[in-house]
């Protein structure tokens, strides 16, 4: 057969493989919605050489209402990875990144790439747009809120980030994809 002729006959072949895979960047994200004051997002980045964190208050006036729904909370949780990627694009670009999210609904929508909820689909598209634009190779994973390193940052606890010898980053907002 052709396979025998190609593989079993002829001179031995030497194939050199030199994978140059960077260690993954670890990214924890979180959101907290406070009725009447809007969302607070937090993020924590751990690289082989350093650690960084951000926190940002009230991205949108949409959440300044008296009632915050579970959908609103999920949308805010899904925004956090997009903000983290935009903020640390210069570090994450071209590298694998493991993103830890503590909200199952937001995580599911991000992994799936869409949601039946229109606003959430726009945020999910923004997450993937940011990842694609900066050539980040992502993996998304669930983390329990109790061990989410970004949880204190989403509550405005900057001291926790500093206690981990992390440098504070100025959060950058991504362009939100709209349909």
Question: Can you walk me through this structure?
Answer:
It contains seven helices and six strands. The protein is of the alpha/beta class and 179 residues long. A six-stranded mixed sheet has the order 5-4-1-2-3-6. The protein is globular and about 55 Å long. The model has no long low-confidence stretch (mean pLDDT 84).
Strand content: 15-25%
Helix residue percentage: 25-40%
> What form results from the Cα inertia axes?
globular
Number of helices: 7
Chain oligomer state: single chain
| Order of the strands making up the biggest sheet | 5-4-1-2-3-6
Extract low-pLDDT stretches: none
Distance between the termini: 54 Å
Question: What's this entry about, in short?
Answer:
The chain is an alpha/beta fold. It contains seven helices and six strands.
Question: Can you give keywords for this protein?
Answer:
22% strand, 36% helix, 179 residues, globular
Write the layout of secondary structure elements.
Layout: H1 2-8, E1 25-34, E2 38-46, E3 51-57, H2 70-87, H3 89-92, E4 96-101, H4 104-112, H5 118-133, E5 137-142, H6 151-154, H7 158-163, E6 167-168
Parallel strand pairs: 1-4, 3-6, 4-5
Antiparallel strand pairs: 1-2, 2-3
Helix pairs in contact: 2-4, 2-5
């Amino acid at each position: 057969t052709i396979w025998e002729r190609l593989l079993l006959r002829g001179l031995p072949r030497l194939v050199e493989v030199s994978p140059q895979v960077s260690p993954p960047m670890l990214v924890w994200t979180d959101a907290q919605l406070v009725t009447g004051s809007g969302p607070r997002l937090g993020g924590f980045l751990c690289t082989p050489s350093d650690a960084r964190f951000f926190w940002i208050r009230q991205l949108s006036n949409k959440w300044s209402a008296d009632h915050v729904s579970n959908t609103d909370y999920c949308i805010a949780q899904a925004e956090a990875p997009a903000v983290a990627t935009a903020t640390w694009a210069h570090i994450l670009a071209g590298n694998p990144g493991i993103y830890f999210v503590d909200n199952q609904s937001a995580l599911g929508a991000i992994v799936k790439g869409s949601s039946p909820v229109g606003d959430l689909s726009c945020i999910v598209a923004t997450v993937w747009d940011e990842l694609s634009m900066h050539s980040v190779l992502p993996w998304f994973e669930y983390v329990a809120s109790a061990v989410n390193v970004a949880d204190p940052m989403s509550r405005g606890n900057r001291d926790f980030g500093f206690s981990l010898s992390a440098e504070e980053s100025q959060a950058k907002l991504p362009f939100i994809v709209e349909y």
